[in-house]
Amino acid sequence: MALTRVTKHIVHGSLLVQFKYVENEGNWDLTGSQNVYTKVNNKNIVLTPQYADSILENSASATIRDISGSQNITDTYSIGLHVNGSLEYEESTIGGFTPYGNNYIHTGGRNDRIAPTRRHGHITNMSHSLGLSHAFTPGTTNAQDCDVRVKNSTTRNIRVRDFFFIAKEISIGLPSSGAQ
Amino acid sequence: MALHKITKKSLKGSMLVQFKYVEREGTWTHASSSNSFLTIDGKQILMTPQFPDSIMETSCQFSIGDSTGAQNHTDTFLTRLMCNGSEEYLQQDMTGLTPYGTAFIHTGGRNDRVSPTRRVGHVTNVRTSVAFTHAYIPRTTNQITFEVQVRCTADRDFQVKDFFMICKEIGIPEDRVKSGSVNTDVP
Fold first, then answer.
1. Winning range, highest mean pLDDT, from A7-16, A109-118, B172-181
2. Is residue A10 part of a domain?
3. Does residue A103 fall inside a structural domain?
4. Which end of chain B has a smaller Cβ tally under 10 Å, C or N?
5. Domain containing B69: what range?
């Protein structure tokens, strides 16, 4: 608790003790081991709680997309909040599945003299807006190294754009605050 | 910093100084020059920071999507947070690309006696949910006008639905813990 009694009057409440944020403007591409959680451009926030009973609140936003240019019918993305290297929260099945079809069949495509540019309902490189919100009580005043990692369900290149990540230390006013 | 000395003992801390929000309920259409940024229905939040070292935290959410009913396979949408007319944060690649195809061809469609209901994989007016969060330190106590703008990569009509934006002034304690941007304020 950040506020305690100062005089006879009790000052009792919730306070925002720390507020840190980090940005990765523009593109960051995950082009190797894409199905393994990897930090978004090594961005992290180290936050040392001032009180052991504080709540750490995290929020992040970005967009994510396939950049392989290839058709697929199974890929989805995951985003994971990691704290001190451990997965604290995971949001899975972001995006997907991608509509697919044939580039070249008897109607449309290179064998069709009438409509060679006709394509049959597939698309590649779909993009998705994503966001996460999370809170937890670390129960310690040791440094908390928070980062956001992403992965694909398969080894196909993906791109994260315009990543923004906020971490706050919330000092709770009531003992009943926190996880239900 | 929002809290300061109350008695002989100094009380310093971080406080939520201001909290404002604005809503655009229902549907708003970007129907002209849709490939240029436009403020969502002119909605703004005016906030005058009480302390120059405050953090301004902004979050917003809405849904967005093509409303032309036309097929396209290249469009994506962008949104940005404007502060006093300057771009503070940009989010690109919101949704897209849209699956496309031909509704009526020789296989499938009304001229196909075998499979008249067959369609060839296209869809239009795809919608997506959008949300972003942002923070920065303006280092001024001059009034700031916050707006969220959107555009499409093509000049094609699109709709924004149920826009909601929140803006907060956070009074940060810079004396004990280093709050602020990891990029610039807290190396």
1. B172-181
2. no
3. yes
4. C
5. 16-171
Q: Which residues of B touch A120 (CB under 8 A)?
A: 101-102, 120-121
Give the model's confidence band at A104: pLDDT under 50 very low, under 70 low, under 90 confident, else very high: very low
Please give the average per-residue pLDDT across A2-25, as a whole number. 72
What is the rounded average pLDDT for all residues in chain A?
83
Q: Is residue A12 part of a domain?
A: no
What is the β-pairing status of strands A77-83 and A86-94? antiparallel
How far is residue A160's CA from residue A28's CA, in Å, rounded to a whole number?
A: 5
Contacts of B23 by beta carbon, 8 Å cutoff, 6+ apart: B43, B162, B163, B164, B165
Residue type, B86: S
Q: Which residue of B has its CA nearest to A123?
A: B99
Q: Suggest the residue from A120, A129, A141, A150 to mutate for an interface test with chain B (most B CBs closer than 10 A).
A: A129
Give me the domain span that covers residue A99.
Answer: 17-171
pLDDT tens for B81-108 read 999 999 999 999 887 777 666 544 445 4
Domain count, chain A: 1
Give A116-170 pLDDT, tens digit per residue.
Answer: 565 556 677 888 888 889 999 999 999 999 999 999 999 999 999 999 999 999 8
CATH number at residue B31: 2.60.120.660
Contact A50/B13, CB-based, under 8 Å? no
DSSP string, A43-56: EEEEE--SSTTPEE
In a domain, A34, yes or no: yes
Question: How far is B139 from chain A, CA to nearest CA, in Å?
Answer: 16
Residue B160: what pLDDT?
94
Q: Do the Cβ atoms of B38 and B155 come closer than 8 Å?
A: no
Q: What ipTM is given for this predicted complex?
A: 0.78
| Mean of pLDDT over chain B | 81
**H/E segment holding residue B157:** none
- Measure CB to CB from residue B15 to each of A15, A43, A50 and give the nearest one: A15
- DSSP line for A118-172: ---S---S-EEEEEEEEEE---S-S-EEEEEEEEESSS--EEEEEEEEEEEEEE-
| Domain assignment present for B41 | yes
Flag if A20 and B122 touch (Cβ within 8 Å).
no
